[in-house]
Design a protein that fits this description.
32% helix, alpha+beta, 10 strands, 338 residues, Type Iii Antifreeze Protein Isoform Hplc 12, two-stranded antiparallel sheet
Length: 338
């Protein structure tokens, strides 16, 4: 490429940029002139003259005043630099403030107040830290200002002695205040951290503290604009294999059937073992009896037996005979014939 051609390209670029700047300045002046011509009331608002990060000290050279429509002044804005810096002690930025962005009271500390988490917390909210690692902390891609869901993984033992693992969504859309000891929302480089601090209500802070000892906590990063909660359910190991409740019930019924059969076999074995032991005990007793010698017989005295004999009595010598004569009975005493 020739030198003349290169020079012409550079000049064309410079003139193009200069033209764009001049056009923007002219349009700005025209908008200001039109606003004044229409009788719009103007006010002033303090904005950042340079980019401010978390913890930066506010000074007069970092702030400036610009014109602002009187009816559109943001809530918490300062009209003059003196008002923004009023009070004893310095003020610091609580979050990133871009150039020409209005400086609001919620984005800076009070007079003499340090830029700490206590100054960032909302009304009635608490800061709670969660221990994480390179995996549970979403590989270090969670930064201050992000929204996360907190998951709780637990393993419990049922009545049958079987361990069952499951995951619940403990809390949703929790605001991250700091990662490790960094609360600067302008931080944009991924870093593996050991702790994440979130903003929570008193009840949610109690849940997090209890859950930290009940199982393992992990984070799920939410979309920046997704602040609303969603309906969730418990996930168990059966959900990982795609089994339906009917499949789980059938498998459990089969396991119960096998357990019942095993129990029946055990009872039968116990009965057989009991009978075997009883037979062994009887055999041992018979062996003991066979080893005992019989006692010698002792002659007994002869016993006298009594004999009872029946004797026929002698018949009487005389007998009485009755004879009817007509209707009259006559008796005669006569000797008995032998």
């Amino acid at each position: 490429m020739r030198a003349n051609t290169l020079i012409m390209i550079i000049l064309a670029g410079v003139f193009g940029v200069l033209a764009v700047v001049l056009v923007n300045m002219w349009l700005a002046s025209q908008r200001s002139a039109m606003a004044e011509a229409n009788g719009v009331q103007r006010d002033t608002v303090v904005v950042a003259a340079v980019p401010l990060k978390f913890g930066d000290t506010l000074t007069s050279d970092k702030l400036r005043e610009i014109a602002w429509p009187a009816g559109a002044v943001p809530t918490g804005a300062f009209k003059t630099t003196k008002d923004a810096l009023a009070g004893e002690g310095v003020k610091q930025a609580l979050q990133t403030i871009g150039t020409n962005e209005p400086v609001l009271a919620t984005k800076i500390t009070g007079p003499g107040q340090r830029a700490t988490l206590s100054a960032v917390l909302g009304e009635g909210m608490k800061a709670v830290s969660i221990r994480v690692n390179d995996v549970l902390g979403v590989a270090g891609f969670v930064f201050p200002g992000d929204r996360v869901d907190i998951l709780l993984t637990r393993t419990v033992r049922d009545n049958e002695g079987t361990d069952k693992s499951f995951v619940d969504v403990l809390l949703q859309s929790m605001k991250v205040l700091a990662v490790d000891q960094v609360a600067d929302e302008s931080k944009d480089s991924p870093t593996v951290v050991k702790a994440v601090t979130v903003e929570a209500s008193t009840k949610d802070a109690q849940k997090l503290t209890l859950a930290a000892g009940a199982g393992q906590l992990s984070l799920a990063l939410r979309q920046a604009a997704a602040s609303k909660g969603e309906t969730t359910g418990r996930v168990t190991l059966s959900d990982l294999t795609g089994e339906t409740p009917d499949d789980v019930a059938k498998r459990q019924a089969e396991l119960d059937k096998q357990a019942a059969a095993a129990a029946e076999r055990k009872r039968a074995d116990d009965r057989i073992a009991g009978l075997t032991q009883a037979v062994e005990r009887v055999g041992s007793k018979l062996d003991d009896l066979s080893k005992v010698k019989p006692a010698p017989a002792v002659a007994s005295e002869p016993q006298v037996q009594e004999v009872v004999k029946y004797v026929q009595p002698e018949p009487p010598a005389r007998a009485t005979i009755g004879v009817f004569r007509g209707i009259k009975l006559e008796t005669y005493d006569v000797p008995r014939q032998k």
